[in-house]
Design goal:
- The protein has 124 residues and is mainly beta.
- The chain has one domain.
- 3% of the residues lie in helices and 56% in strands.
- It has one helix and eight strands; from the N terminus they run ββββββββα.
- The strands form two sheets. It has a four-stranded antiparallel beta sheet, with no helix packed on it.
């Protein structure tokens, strides 16, 4: 079962138990639950439900594991040749780390897969 959610103008494909880095949420504290209500697509193993643009009543819940996480450092350097003009700046984005705990979509058919033995040598 998976869902595609939108958060901060970005789309994320999530399943239960996934760790996800979303834009920094200043009000979120470690251990609290965040609810994402912009669910675009959901699939439970059968037919997909596609929102227009979002699925009504669908939510994805996640627990905050790290409330402030730093992304990689970006360095911007501009040089104008033969002018002795240089400018150096940097940026480091903040993120909030979330573990997905539940995907709630009304009228979604969840298909359980049969457990099969993947090792053909064990069958002999």
């Amino acid at each position: 079962m998976f869902a595609i959610i939108e958060n901060g103008s970005r789309q994320h494909r999530v399943e239960e138990g996934d760790l996800l880095s979303v834009d920094f949420q200043s009000e979120a504290k470690e251990g609290e639950t965040l609810t994402f209500d912009r669910v675009l697509i959901a699939n439970g193993g059968g037919a997909s439900i596609i929102g227009a643009p979002v699925i009504d009543g669908a939510t994805v819940q996640g627990e905050v594991t790290i409330e402030e996480e730093k992304g990689e450092k970006l360095e911007i350097q501009k040089i104008r040749r033969r002018k002795n003009s240089r400018r150096h700046t940097g940026h480091r984005q903040k993120y909030t780390r979330v573990r997905i705990t539940a995907i709630n979509v009304p009228n979604l058919d969840i298909v359980k897969e049969k457990e099969t033995d993947d090792d053909p040598a064990a069958a002999e």
